[in-house]
């Protein structure tokens, strides 16, 4: 065994992707001490994407205060990758549900302004390639708060700037993008998005995602009416109509706003991360690729990290092992998508908290066992 690539996602609530990779290496290197180990922390565009890409590119995390979804200041961050020109932003960092207490969530007033402030901060730092991960947002404002913080003016019939929040979009009459941040024209935007919902309708931003953000029946009707109005006004103001595009409904319509004003390219999150980590080049010549996540199940095949890694490895016919905290009864389907064998690190029945606490030691032990079996077979 000469070269082993370890490219896992995080084990949520217990280990980061880098910590998982290091634990697997520790277990394998006790059996194969002379192998070349390539650690590539991965993510699929959601939580952990900034951390994974910063780690693998030797970048840094930038912290700053921004406007949270409730209008108060919150601590947020983005990743500046090793090239110094690319930033990775998780929308949830600035505009996520976790910033608002359960009983205070209100998508009618929640704003995405903070996400725009993160983008502005990156642009002012000289970044000209921005990757934005959508998901986990508390907002339903079609990204208008974000755009307002980047210089777009949304005014009512009297010329007054409209308030923040999804419900206030019903007041928009005029849209002026002439003062959009000048660096926007030079910046390439990629959006990590794994949903194909349009902006409106029964599969739209409001109907599908509104309830989890605190919208009741009346609020859902208000928000749908407001988003419909905004889409109509944009067309009246000479902007393209993106309401039916796949992904327009992502993150409370943030996808719609980015399509309309940023000419953003939408890709599954794992594809963006595979490209950013240069994984195709890393796996060349490997004898084995190891991937994994907290739970491997039938949902793993839908754009999750382990399958993205496996597909990349199979470009070169490299065997792939999947390691997880737990396996579902239907996990066998992953073997039809490039993963050759799967293993759970659980040594016995235990509580969830015990599993979290023992994840590192169990992962090391499991990796060592897998390596030992492979070494026995090679003799």
TrEMBL record:
Pfam (any one): Gly_kinase
Keywords, alphabetical: Kinase, Transferase
One MF annotation (Gene Ontology) recorded for this entry: kinase activity
Homology family: Belongs to the glycerate kinase type-1 family.
Name the record gives this protein: Glycerate kinase
Species of origin: Oceanisphaera pacifica
């Amino acid at each position: 065994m000469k070269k082993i690539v370890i490219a896992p996602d995080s084990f949520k609530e217990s280990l980061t992707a880098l910590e998982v990779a290091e634990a697997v290496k520790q277990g394998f290197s006790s059996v194969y001490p002379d192998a070349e180990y390539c650690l590539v922390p991965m993510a699929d565009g959601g939580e952990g994407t900034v951390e994974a890409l910063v780690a693998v590119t030797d970048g840094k995390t930038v912290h700053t205060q921004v406007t949270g979804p409730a209008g108060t200041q919150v601590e947020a961050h983005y990743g500046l990758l090793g090239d110094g020109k690319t930033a990775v932003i998780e929308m949830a960092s600035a505009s996520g549900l976790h910033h608002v207490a359960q009983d205070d969530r209100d998508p009618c007033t929640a704003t995405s302004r903070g996400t725009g402030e993160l983008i502005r901060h990156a642009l002012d730092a000289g970044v000209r390639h921005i990757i934005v991960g959508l998901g986990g947002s508390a907002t339903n404002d079609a990204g208008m708060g974000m755009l307002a913080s980047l210089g777009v003016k949304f005014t009512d019939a009297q010329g007054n700037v409209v308030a923040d929040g999804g419900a206030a979009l019903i007041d928009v009459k005029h849209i002026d993008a002439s003062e959009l941040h000048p660096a926007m024209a030079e910046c390439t935007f990629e959006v990590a998005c794994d949903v194909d919902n349009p902006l409106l309708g029964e599969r739209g931003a409001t109907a599908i995602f509104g309830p989890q953000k605190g919208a009741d029946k009346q609020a859902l009707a208000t928000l749908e009416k407001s988003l419909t109005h905004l889409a109509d006004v944009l067309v009246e103001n000479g902007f393209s109509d993106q309401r039916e595009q796949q992904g327009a409904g992502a993150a409370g319509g943030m996808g719609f706003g980015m399509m309309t004003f940023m000419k953003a390219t939408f890709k599954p999150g794992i594809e963006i991360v595979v490209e950013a980590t240069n994984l195709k080049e890393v796996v060349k010549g490997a004898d084995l690729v190891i991937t994994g996540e907290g739970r491997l199940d039938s949902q793993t095949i839908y754009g999750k990290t382990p399958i993205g890694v496996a597909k990349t490895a199979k470009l070169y016919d490299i065997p792939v092992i999947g390691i997880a905290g737990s396996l579902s009864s239907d996990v066998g389907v992953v073997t039809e998508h490039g993963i050759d064998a799967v293993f759970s690190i659980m040594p016995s029945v235990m509580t969830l908290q015990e599993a979290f606490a023992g994840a590192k030691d169990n992962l090391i032990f499991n990796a060592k066992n897998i390596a030992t079996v492979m070494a026995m077979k090679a003799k």
